[in-house]
């Protein structure tokens, strides 16, 4: 999806050029994933000769918001605080991350 959000429409081959090397995927893997995303209503297809062009139907912000909520619900009982505690304890938060979180919290308190 990141590849298609960055530039669309794209063919399966163009998506593969972007993601296959980094993720160790093959063209059949990309085609399977694209097909599943079309079936789920996340992508639109447009015939282009003997190939298809793929475009996202879901905005990145909406997708990330939904996935974030599902992650918090599934792993942390619907509470975000344990997620931040886990990240802090695992030293997964940089100083910049902490400053950004603090800024967001200050804005929310206003």
Automatic annotation (TrEMBL):
GO terms for molecular function: DNA binding. Keywords: DNA-binding, Transcription, Transcription regulation. The keyword Membrane does not apply. GO terms for biological process: negative regulation of DNA-templated transcription. It holds the Pfam family Penicillinase_R. SUPFAM superfamilies: Winged helix' DNA-binding domain (SSF46785). Belongs to the BlaI transcriptional regulatory family. This is CopY family transcriptional repressor. It comes from Aurantiacibacter rhizosphaerae.
């Amino acid at each position: 999806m990141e590849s298609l959000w960055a530039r669309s429409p794209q063919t399966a081959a163009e998506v593969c050029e972007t993601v296959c090397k980094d993720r160790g995927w093959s063209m059949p893997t990309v085609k399977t994933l694209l097909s599943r995303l079309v079936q789920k209503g996340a992508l639109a297809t447009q015939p282009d000769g003997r190939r298809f062009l793929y475009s996202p139907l879901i905005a990145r912000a909406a997708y990330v918001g939904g996935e974030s909520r599902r992650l918090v619900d599934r792993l942390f009982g619907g509470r975000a605080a344990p997620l931040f505690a886990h990240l802090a304890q695992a030293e997964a938060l940089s100083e910049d991350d902490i400053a950004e979180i603090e800024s967001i919290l200050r804005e929310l308190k206003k």
